[in-house]
Amino acid sequence: MKGTVEILKGERILILIVLMTFLLGIISGYASYEQSKEEMVPVLKDMVRRLLTESKSQTAFNIFMNNLTATVMFLILGVTVILPLLIVFSNGYLFGFILKMMDIQGLGWFEFLKATVPHAVFELPAFFLAAIIGMRIGTGVIVAKGKRKKEFTRRSREGIFIFLTVVVPLLILAAFVEAFITFELVLG
Questions:
Q1: Which of 48, 13, 34 is nearest to 178 (CA)?
Q2: What burial class does residue 45 get, using C-beta atoms within 10 Å of its C-beta: 0-12 exposed, 13-18 middle, 19+ buried?
Q3: pTM for the whole thing?
Q4: pLDDT of 188
């Protein structure tokens, strides 16, 4: 079986599509803050309230399970190709929305980076990788005429290997960094 880097070298177009979709989501979330703040702000406040009332261990576990669920959905929905992109866009949208919200509150870029970078360096690659894996499985079904079952099986096996050896460990790191370090940086 090919290694993760070798597999990803052949998926430059999918990588570019995922990254551009996330960037478009950020821009959209930032630009449409005023139109969506009535729906989004209460949801974010409720999330923060829950996070502040849980122990750090419980918070880390909840973050991990939420992110694990999202990344498993990438794998399951990957055969559709488009649904993982909608999830990537939504995450970018939330990222952009929060950036604009912090900007309006006068917190600025440094505070935004302090609140996101420590855990995002693990979380975003895991999300992007899971989306790419799922889409890679999906495009294998579309492209491989006459060999669909074999290609689907091969890509699924490789994807599950990458998911278990790279994505899940990154999600674990991200959850613990977010619960134990990011919150301290933001609140302290």
A1: 48
A2: exposed
A3: 0.89
A4: 63
Cβ contacts of 147 within 8 Å, gap of 6 or more: none
> What is the C-alpha to C-alpha distance for residues 150 and 62, in angstroms, rounded to an integer?
37
Q: What is the mean pLDDT of each run of 10 residues along the chain (188 residues)?
A: 79 94 97 90 81 85 94 90 93 93 84 85 96 91 76 90 96 94 76
CA distances from residue 6 to 9, 58, 123 in whole angstroms, order as listed: 5, 36, 21
Domain range spanning residue 41?
4-187
Q: Look at residues 118, 121, 126 and name the one whose alpha carbon lies nearest to residue 178.
A: 118
Whole-angstrom distance, CA of residue 153 vs CA of residue 138: 11
Instruction: Please choose, from the candidates 172, 144, 177, 143, the residue with its C-alpha nearest in 3D space to the C-alpha of residue 71.
Output: 172
Count of domains in the chain? Answer: 1
Name the H helices within the chain.
4-9, 12-31, 33-53, 56-77, 82-104, 108-143, 148-162, 168-177, 183-187
Contact indicator for 88, 127 with CB cutoff of 8 Å: yes
pLDDT at res. 129: 96
Structure tokens at 164: 């278990």
Confirm if 134 and 84 have CB atoms less than 8 A apart: yes
Closest CA to 26 of 112, 95, 100, 115: 95
